[in-house]
Amino acid sequence: MYNRLPEAEQALALAPVIVTINGKAVQCREGDSVAAALLAAGLNECRDTAVKDVPRGPFCLMGICYDCLVMIDDQPNQQGCMIPVRSGMKIERQHGAREVQA
Amino acid sequence: MITTMKCDLLVVGAGPAGLAAATTAAQQGISTILLDEQAAPGGQIYRAITSTPIRERKILGDDYWHGESLLEPFKHSGAQYIPGATVWAVAQMTVADATQGFEVGYSVAGEARMLHAKQIVLATGAQERPFPIPGWTLPGVITAGAAQILLKSSGMVPGKGTVLAGCGPLLYLIAWQYLNAGIKVDALLDTTPPGRLGKALPHVWGFLTSPYLFKGLKLLREVKAQVRIVKGVTSLEALAGPAPNDQTLQSVRFTAGGQTETLAVSQLLLHQGVIPNINLAQAVGVEQQWNELLLCWEPKVDLWGGTNVSSVSIAGDGGGIAGALAAEHRGRLSALQVAHQLGKITAAQRDAASVAPRAALARAVQGREFFDTLYQAPEQFRLPTGDTIVCRCEEITAGQVRETVSLGCPGPNQMKSFLRCGMGPCQGRFCSVTVTELIAQERNVTPQEVGHYRLRFPTKPLTLGELAALPQTDDSKKAVIRLKKPV
Question: Is any Cβ of chain B less than 8 angstroms from the Cβ of A82?
């Protein structure tokens, strides 16, 4: 679990950005990355891996490890740590490898 | 008609090296573009310096706020700044006119773009050294650098059950920053081997004259007074719980002084130093060498950051780890050389202008051998065995890599064919040094002899949709239109 310091809490209260994470509405601070928003919401996991289908969560937060891949607005493989939250954004857990659709 | 952006100098990365290089170059009248992946300048060391919610300056400390001194000069330099831009390809111009330099592919908000540059300064900075211990892929385990990014950019701190583990100054710095913010971590597990101080002592003179000395000692004292420090940690494991929590971090088990202890944790923050972020340089064709003290690949650079690839230079930690202050001076030196190569200043003017940054650089690296020797990542945390994952993306274990060497696989590139390690989305960033060292150990040869992954463009994953968004030039249309042959 990660908590916001009072200064960040105040910034959030002043102008919350509301997104949905796995269908649940969550308030975020403007400027937070999707990965930060997940961690602040108590979610250490963001996906199941493509190879062994085990849970994985954000790791480096600087755009190089690709562990924070999530579904954003139905687009898979989005880098959660590189994308800022936007009002109305739909963030969902990514399940394993993509399937080929007929 | 589409016009491609053109510049004399492209700088990649807006950390201290990139900001200083772009500023110095633009001040010399060079048309300069700075591309940076992040939304705001600062790199990782001064991450979010223009946007951090943390207003209480003592939390992050003076060394962080020093970054502000780079921003104003940059803003007024005339350099063009493009944030949110990920560079994925740098190609020598294929046209006959070689003076046109390079064609550079990059993406902004999911759309590919191109620009042309005569000279390139890569200022891609550093990344965390891989820390392959059992369980390091469990959700809840993040790098200490990542935790610091959360603090700087989002004002976020870990809650109950947090342990820091590893070695190096950053580990104590973050513990200190947390204390400043009123947060006390449960423990700091220090893996620095006993006896290291003895090894580092021959370099102590540099350390005693280092500008970091007093600040560093004060910080250490404050952390030691308030946080439980476990010295001489010889083994470390991140453990999940029993089902259904068998895929979540529940505890950390460690051994120190022959005693094994388990602590319940919700967050484990790992750090054992940083290594240069060299993927782009490697793909451009910059020669790399293995640094025996820092145990990583680093580009071969001259005194100006120049490389074996003409018109490509490297500034800052991406050209070998030397820290943030050194990075800005290295950025200035690279820019002066670029100005000379572009004919803006004479060699004599370049040399005169470089006296101050070169002296400042020498001061900034005082004491580094001492730190580098003291905090060299210990072997058992670099060279894992058995089921410990080495390649996080393709989920390849140390045991698999070692067995494959015994089958006759001699190097990292062959290892890709056998196991796919290094072929996931991170493109080897979190396994390259480990795979090289594992192969070297199994074959009983040096890492230099083993070599490194060969990297190709695109150096970051690129979707077809992104590429298709590339503006079409008249030439690119002509290239695919079938023309009727005149009868």
Answer: yes
